[in-house]
Amino acid sequence: MDETVECKPAPAADLRELNEKYNIRHAAPIATKTAAIAKDGSVDAESAGITTDTTVDTPLQLVTKTLDTSDDPTENIYTFRAFVLGLGLSAFGAVLGEIFYFKPQTINVSIVFLIMIAYCLGEATVLIPRWGPVGRFLNPGPFTQKEHVFIVIMASSAATCALGTEQLAAQSLYYGNQPNAASAIFMLFSSQCIGYGLLGGIRNAFIYPTKFVWPSQLPNAALFQSMHLNKELARKRLRIFWCICVAVMVWEIVPQWMFPLTTGISIFCLANQDSAFFTRLFGGANGNEGMGFLGWCMDWQYIGEKEFTLPLSTLVNQLIGYIGCIALTLGAYYSNLWDAKRFPFMAQSLFTSNGTVYDQTQILGPDNQVDPAALQAYGFPRFATSKALSLLMKNMGITAAVVHVLLWNWHDIKFIFAPFRPSALKQNVQKVRTWWHHGFNSSFWKNFTSDADTPRKEYPGTEGDPHYAAMRAYKEVPSFWYISILAVSILIGLICCYQQKTGLPWWAFLLAVLLAWILTTFFACMYGIVGFYYQPTSAVQMIGAYMVPRRPVANMMFTLYGSNALVQAIQMLGDLKLAQYAKLPPRATFLAQILGTCAGSVFNWVMMNSIVDNRRDILLSVQGTNIWSGQNVQTYNSQAVAWGGTANEILYHSGRHGTYWMVPMGLFFGIFAPMPFWIGHKYFPQLRLNSINTFLICTWLGWLSVGINSSLLAYFVFGFFAQGYLRRYKPTLFAKWNNICAAAIAGGCSLIIFILTFAVAGGSGKARDFPQWWGNNMDGNVDRCKYLNGT
């Protein structure tokens, strides 16, 4: 028998009263018991209060059996080290996120990686001698969980790359119009913060009810608790983390610089280096090269770490979409759908009808507005067929997601729409009339700020939830804070629209904000319950095209405020739910989000300018390199030109259907995608058709139209190994090390890419390429597939 040591949990509030009140025997499985922890870092599940024979069938059981519910209200949050580490990691995360944005395959800064780095730095500050007032100021004592969460929320808010930099990059690359620094930064502030204001006033509906679990935050909350409830276990996990992290850092030098062939090893291309079909099907180590089928990727930057944490059902649905995408895209290309063979197999740029790159300056008149006569003379823009097909399928995915949630989760979300019933609207109108006739007196302001000035009351859907009950001890954020952010963001956005001469009128700007609120309200419901969402950028661009036709830059601004707000609002709600699990006061969360978002916007802008200035030619090229790519900016601009500038011509030509009329129709087709499976499950539940997620399938049917695709085989192999084998047959091993390994991989990649970007990849202004050899084919595709030169 292993020798064990008994470790007491961190100081916590007594929850016995709550347990008795709500009759929850399992409310605090970890905090109410001590855990037997072996010297190897393993935890005896029974002694920790975690039983393996109980089921987790409801959201309440999930959040009380897997997470600790204790709280220590005495923990200090606003320490000097918390602000220094939070702002420092915000700068690091923002720079790294912007670098990732200009990669051939867009990846995000891992929040798990930020958690681990923040913990290591926070624990390092504890070593500072506490001599005198200065020592106690720099080292206020043990590094607490609340400080840790405060730092990570600040850093993750900054690490979410601002979509506004995409617009600024497009204006610089394609329109020769780069706004001054003040205008650009204020636009980023406005577009990043407006999402907070949109849902801030009704945030409680998405955070308080237990049914809104926010699945993506559960592993993060568990990781925080594993680090702070028991220090010995944390040290063991950190040793493993750093071993894997350093190993990944050392290895990533190989595919990123020395031996790029390992980004996508294709035995088919090595066997036949003269086949265009093999390049399109099996190639994928370069951006926009091919579909990467059966290629093996050894670059963890592109494999990523998400597959280790995604549910098995999600991976299965993605795999169905992946296989379908290969068949659909190849079928469309070789059947010459939309004149596919005239254009490159994969590309995000626009083309003329004869296949040359579309010169948008030929159709733009004054103020970057499309000139109809010049458009008729030069010709209509065309998409690569894989790109048009991707837009079609992702449009289907947007409405499929809406219908999927309505069919499967309506009972979970219907109460949110109760205020919009005619009777409720009538009551609200009556209240406004009363206030108007009697003046906005003290009773009005009392109601306006009641969420902050009065104790938090019982909220529908929170019955028996000890996490919510513990948070009732903290003051809420006044709603007018969020409303003020919304008002200021709208005002700044309107000023930037006119100062930058985008051509977007004020009424269209306000409609974009309204559209963002509608989309965000719905997708926040979906993500909070089922754990995924898709940013409907293309749909917003199409809607903006009808409102403000023939103005590409105006369309980009409309899309920025109509789509980016969704990302920021969901980020805000996810942080608030994480704060509830970690018992971080709402006002501390609000401060961390605002500081991180504003700091991140500045560093996003600085890094974007550096990359655009130094890598301009690569960002404008169709294929790019395996290090840098302008595919995101190309997509953003090409859709702005196509939909915002020429939508009427490409959809309807000479009074009949135009070439791409089916693309926006995808929004209509997606409505019907989930229905057969819902009906089938209703009558034949034994078929388990409820596991089919048409949103994921439709989205992945258009997944392979861009970037480096050689990583998908490894993605599914590791994902099915972790979720299909380890989780099912080795649950203890999975629970102990899966998240740690995923974090270490993400951390190693993030650190080495940050270093290599400035050391050898040209981020500092000068690229230092590794000498050319067989494994570093700089004159073609690195996987030795036939180089098609964008054809």
Q: Supply Rg.
A: 27 Å
Q: Indicate the percent of residues in helices.
A: 55-70%
End-to-end Cα distance, whole Å, is 66 Å
Mean of all residue-level pLDDT scores? 80
Shape descriptor: globular
- The secondary structure category is mainly alpha
Question: Which residues sit in consecutive blocks of at least 5 with pLDDT less than 50?
Answer: 1-56
Please give the largest β-sheet: 2 strands, antiparallel
What is the oligomeric state here? single chain
- Discrete helix count: 33
Structure description:
This protein has 791 residues and is mostly helical. It has 4 domains: 4-54, no CATH class; 80-211 and 461-629, no CATH class; 258-359 and 383-395 and 659-759, no CATH class; 421-453, no CATH class. The protein has helices at 16-22, 59-65, 80-101, 111-125, 132-138, 145-159, 164-174, 181-200, 204-207, 218-228, 231-258, 267-271, 276-282, 300-303, 312-334, 372-378, 385-413, 422-438, 442-448, 450-453, 466-471, 479-499, 506-530, 537-547, 552-582, 586-614, 616-620, 631-651, 662-669, 675-683, 694-701, 712-729, 731-759; strands at residues 4-7, 35-38, 652-653, 656-657. The chain has a two-stranded antiparallel ribbon. Strands 3-4 form a two-stranded antiparallel sheet. Helix 7 runs parallel beside helix 26 (586-614) and helix 8 (181-200) packs across helix 25. It starts with a strand and ends in a 32-residue tail after the last helix. Mean pLDDT is 80; it is low at 1-56. One of its GO terms (molecular function) is oligopeptide transmembrane transporter activity. One of its GO terms (biological process) is protein transport. InterPro entries: Oligpept_transpt, OPT. Belongs to the oligopeptide OPT transporter family.
